[in-house]
Amino acid sequence: MTVPEETTTPAEETAPHQEQPPGERVASAPSEEPSGEDALPEWARKELAKVRGEAANYRTRLRDAETKLGEAKSPDEFEAALSELRAQNAELERSVLRASVARKYELPDDLADALRGEDEAALAAHAKVLAKYIPAPAPQSLGGGLTPDDGEDGEMDPRKLARLSRRF
Length: 168
Prior knowledge:
elongated; 6 helices; about 170 residues
């Protein structure tokens, strides 16, 4: 009778074999980098939560519309449900258009809802007016020039700096 040979996978061949005492459980090493949503910055997590909430709202509206259209028994009920669905769809399209124009002109989310206009051109014109009143963000760092501690000897020599700047 022959004994079958043990087969190993490529991962087992390259992995070092470690002997473990019986009965002890080895905890996996914690990964140093978070994975999934934990790896995202705070602003991205907030935006992701916002988008997921909007998507849930759309799914709920879709189920409600399907229910109303499915329960319609007469042509009049069907037409009423269909017109309500079309009105909701038009409002959602306006909302998406307002949000895209607000992003284009870098308006805050609060002002996106305040945009007035029926079409994209009117919304863009109003967004331009509102954008004038939004202060520009402050730069990350106001430094950028020479500091008195630049240099090897610890003192700033204006003549030496002038000579250096003339070379370029």
